[in-house]
Amino acid sequence: MGMLAHFLAGPHPKTTLLLTRAGPVENPEHLLYSHPGLPLAAEGRQAARALARRLADYPVRAVYTADSRAELEFARLVAEALGVPLEVRPALRERAWGAWEGLAFGEVEARWPELVRDWVQDEAGFRPPGGESVRDVWARACPCLEAVLAAHRGQGVLVVGNCTVNRAALALALPCLPPEEGLRLEQDYARLTVIEFYGSEGVVKALNLG
User: How deeply is 170 buried, as exposed, middle or buried, from its count of CB atoms within 10 A (0-12, 13-18, 19+)?
Assistant: First the structure.
């Protein structure tokens, strides 16, 4: 069912999904990382407090995040500033890099050139050794995000996510967006993306608000 059918069927309560990305993090070498991840930089803590001030204009009832270092610290700062509950969901973790965890891309390319070529050919389906593909992350994150939306029907909720999970959330509102095209949607640190859901149908209202 598309948006028109939902609107013609009558009014639906609006559920507002707010997305942000935890950071900046302490990653001067630009390493690949996922869980438990890297700590927030001082700028990340400042950004969390600034974001909380902007969120005062939205009806946030709860904050959800993964159990990773930067996401958890960032989300806790925002939730405490807003005075709302913080809920931790491991399903919202960033993509696991397996054997590539903690390495710079140049090192990965030098040690696994054939695998990097495979990655280029199949961005969404490729799994690093012992790691996850983008499709794997979407498969675990989307049911979690749908459960969050169901629990807060008619309310507003913030998800402190990461590049891969936030793109999965956007795909709930943009079902025509395949995982391999997710890189076309940039997710900047501590910026705000706003999606409004009417039933299961979503409308992207804003992307990367500063």
Answer: buried
- 83: tokens are 């005075």
Q: pTM for the complete prediction?
A: 0.93
Residue 130: which of 164, 99, 94 has the closest Cα? 99
Per residue of the chain (210 residues), give pLDDT as tens: 566 666 666 667 899 999 999 999 999 989 999 999 999 999 999 999 999 999 988 999 999 999 999 999 999 999 999 999 999 999 999 999 999 999 999 999 999 999 999 999 999 999 999 999 999 999 999 999 999 999 999 999 999 999 999 999 999 999 888 888 888 888 899 999 999 999 888 999 999 998
In the chain, the DSSP E strands lie at 14-21, 60-65, 86-88, 156-161, 192-198, 201-209
